[in-house]
Backbone:
């Protein structure tokens, strides 16, 4: 196939971490790329370094917390490159919070705006076009933090639990249309965000290792997958643990750092 005939993947939060690793994996597989983030210069520098010309990669600037911004980026992608085969709503933030602190309510509001409303807005431009075509995959990046609430992680855990529920709802809506909805729950992945964590991170994966496994899950149109599988076992055990035992297990555990001003979206 010529490059214009190659399948297209649309990835948000593509300027670093998981998003950039996914872009590299899809480029390796021959896909054309539509990369979205606030930091367009960094994405273009990366694309140039990979030898990805304009026929292989387009960069779109958008803030997923702004509905019109990310919807416009999706519409621009369709106009310039066509309807993607895969859309990956990867952009997200992870910030500690304390409900007793007024400024942390603003942090929570922005976390939900990015991780939840931004995810739905990312999918919005593509749903009708994919349904009409009868194919495609919409991929939501959740987290194992969706399984149980962790002290100091209220905003993040709530937002990722909502990603799982939202994607499940969307999957039901699109059943029989040919459009798959894939929910991925990363465990600990080595990214700029997780390097700020002050607690142990078992089964830590490199971003590249996660991207390789995610690519396989998306290609298989797996509806729900925890990566790595070992974390899947751990979270299933935590889910059935009685509340009193679970609460006792977390006593003294370090919490995610708080931050009054959320950073740009990314995984």
Residues:
């Amino acid at each position: 196939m010529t490059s214009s005939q190659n399948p297209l993947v649309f990835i948000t939060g593509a300027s670093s971490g998981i998003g950039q690793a996914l872009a590299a994996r899809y480029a390796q597989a021959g896909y054309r790329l539509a990369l979205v983030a606030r930091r367009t210069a960094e994405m273009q520098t990366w694309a140039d370094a990979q030898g990805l010309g304009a026929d292989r990669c387009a960069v779109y600037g958008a803030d997923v917390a702004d509905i019109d911004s990310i919807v416009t980026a999706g519409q621009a992608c369709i106009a310039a490159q066509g309807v993607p085969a895969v859309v990956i709503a990867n952009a997200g933030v992870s910030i500690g919070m304390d409900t007793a602190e007024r400024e942390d309510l603003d942090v929570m509001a922005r976390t939900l705006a990015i991780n939840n409303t931004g995810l739905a807005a990312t999918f919005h431009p593509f749903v009708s076009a994919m349904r009409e075509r009868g194919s495609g995959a919409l991929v939501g990046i959740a987290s194992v933090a969706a399984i149980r609430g962790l002290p100091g992680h209220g905003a993040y855990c709530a937002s990722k639990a909502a990603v799982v529920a939202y994607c499940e709802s969307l999957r039901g809506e699109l059943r029989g249309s040919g459009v798959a909805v894939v929910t991925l729950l990363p465990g600990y992945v080595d990214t700029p965000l997780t390097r700020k964590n002050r607690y142990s991170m078992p089964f830590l994966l490199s971003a590249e290792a996660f991207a390789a496994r995610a690519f396989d899950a998306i290609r298989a149109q797996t509806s729900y997958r925890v990566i790595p599988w070992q974390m899947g076992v751990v979270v299933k055990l935590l889910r059935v643990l009685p509340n009193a035992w679970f609460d006792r297990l977390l006593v003294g555990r370090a919490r995610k750092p708080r931050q009054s001003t959320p950073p740009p979206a990314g995984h």
